[in-house]
Design brief:
By secondary structure, the protein is mostly beta strands. Helix content is about 10%, strand content about 25%.
Length: about 170
């Protein structure tokens, strides 16, 4: 079943979230709220533009669009774990692509009609930062038939630690 339930694209209310009915109520707003001035102090100008002003980085320029490192992708603004490398796939679109978020409720969905398009914006559920957009039915053959197209600058990859091997040759 689609994360959009009855597709958001038929919805007339631009402010309606596209999240499934089972998702926690996001109407209360993000758990982390900071002033615009606080965000500007904490983020670089590029991070601020994308995360707080819903900007988009240029394709094929971000840090993670072609990364295959195992690990967890966190929100760059607040550190919430959002995606893992297990759901990342090569879409060749120029941005990191995932077929699902890490867990239900880590992201929220907003109907986005900017730039004359009908899209679904993806935001961090914890701090409300813009991450990118999610698209359905593009034929990538992923388990969800969805592509979470996320700006690299919205993410911070925490590489998976290599397992410690215990052995008899450790130095004293």
């Amino acid at each position: 079943m689609s994360i959009f339930g009855n597709s958001i694209f038929g919805n007339k209310d631009a402010g309606t979230a596209a999240s499934p009915a089972a998702e926690p109520d996001m109407a209360a707003g993000p758990a982390i709220e900071k002033s615009d001035e606080e965000w500007r102090e904490e983020l670089t100008p590029e991070e601020y533009h994308v995360l707080r002003q819903a900007g988009t980085e240029r394709p094929f320029t971000g840090e993670y669009w072609d990364t295959h490192t195992a690990g967890v992708y966190q929100c760059r603004a607040c550190g919430t774990e959002l995606f893992t490398s297990n759901e990342k796939f090569d879409s060749h679109c120029g941005w990191p692509s995932f077929w699902a978020p890490l867990a239900e409720g880590t992201v929220r969905y907003i109907h986005d009609r900017t730039l004359g398009m009908d899209r679904v914006e993806v935001r961090c559920a914890t701090c409300g930062s813009h991450l990118g957009h999610v698209f359905e039915g593009e034929g990538y053959g992923t388990p969800t038939d969805q592509r979470f197209c996320i700006n690299s600058v919205s993410l911070k990859l925490v590489p998976q630690e290599k397992p410690q091997v215990s052995g008899g040759n450790a130095e004293a």
